[in-house]
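Anyone up for a design puzzle?
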């Protein structure tokens, strides 16, 4: 979501949830594959909510299939009645509503308590069960509508056509196009471990809030959208913003060392213990894993980031 434009003309984009870095994804996949203690698990509260949502979903799906059974075994036998067609259309719409509502509860449950990508069959079935149920709730009825000997062609065309449209709509609304997974949650967990708490405290002490900015190819994050480092020409000409945890999830290794310069650029007061804070940042960056540390040796990290883009 765009927040506005920086002084350089670059678009400022607020990031609510960043994509974990490839390293975090690789570590997560290894953890899940080997079933280590580092694998993400839902909280008891979320596990309980997911169970409740799944029970509610199943209730709606059972009602949808029950409505289908009524339509097949009773309603289709009433084809000579004047109200038959309208009742059949109403039944089709009701089945669609029940199927979709059930699917929404099921998708909420999968967000809270997802399956593992490493178990592809279960992962597919669990995430696309709403589509499967929609097919079960509609396909037999649609087939019987078109093969019903007591309905005329016009009735078959109207009811069957509406049935197909509602089936497609229910299937699309029930499908999970971006399914959550244990691997995804573990990657977020890996990305948000380590030094984030320390960096959040430092940024909040310097600026009053947990808010930083970064660019797509930069190694570190900065104190505001007016910082000169993020206003340099970059690959996509955008500045990303969010909290420290989101910056780390996006693959940024830590806070810039150009703190004094950026305090001036961003209009923040320079604290009396600034030298101590800068040394704290140096210590954090020195103790970070080698693969996470910013790729710079020069005194100024801007020497590295000026090559962005």
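Challenge accepted. My sequence:
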């Amino acid at each position: 979501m765009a927040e506005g434009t920086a002084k350089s003309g670059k678009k400022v984009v607020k990031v609510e949830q960043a994509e974990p870095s490839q390293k975090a994804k690789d570590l997560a996949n290894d953890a899940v594959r080997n079933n280590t203690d580092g694998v993400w698990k839902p909280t008891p509260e979320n596990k309980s909510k997911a169970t409740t949502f799944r029970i509610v979903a199943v209730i709606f799906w059972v009602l949808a299939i029950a409505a289908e059974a009524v339509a097949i075994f009773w309603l289709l036998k009433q084809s000579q009645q004047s109200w038959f067609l309208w009742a059949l259309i109403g039944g089709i719409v009701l089945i669609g509503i029940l199927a979709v509502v059930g699917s929404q509860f099921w998708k909420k449950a999968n967000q809270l308590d997802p399956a593992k990508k490493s178990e592809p069959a279960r992962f597919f079935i669990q995430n696309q069960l709403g589509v499967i149920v929609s097919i079960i709730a509609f396909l037999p009825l649609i087939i019987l509508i078109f093969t019903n000997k007591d309905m005329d062609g016009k009735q078959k065309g109207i009811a069957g056509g509406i049935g197909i449209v509602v089936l497609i709509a229910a299937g699309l609304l029930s499908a999970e196009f971006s399914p959550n997974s244990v691997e995804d949650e573990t990657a977020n967990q890996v990305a948000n471990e380590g030094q984030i708490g320390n960096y959040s405290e430092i940024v909040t002490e310097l600026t009053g809030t947990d808010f930083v900015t970064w660019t797509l190819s930069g190694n570190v994050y900065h104190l505001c959208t007016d910082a000169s480092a993020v206003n340099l020409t970059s690959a996509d000409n955008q500045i990303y913003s969010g909290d420290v945890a989101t910056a780390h999830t996006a693959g940024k290794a830590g806070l810039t060392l150009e703190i004094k310069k950026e305090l001036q650029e961003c209009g923040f007061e320079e604290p009396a213990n600034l030298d101590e804070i800068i040394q704290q940042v140096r210590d954090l960056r020195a103790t970070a894993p080698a693969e996470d540390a910013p790729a710079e040796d020069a005194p100024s990290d801007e020497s590295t980031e000026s090559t962005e883009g």
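A detail worth pointing out: Residues 290-309 have pLDDT under 50 and may be disordered.
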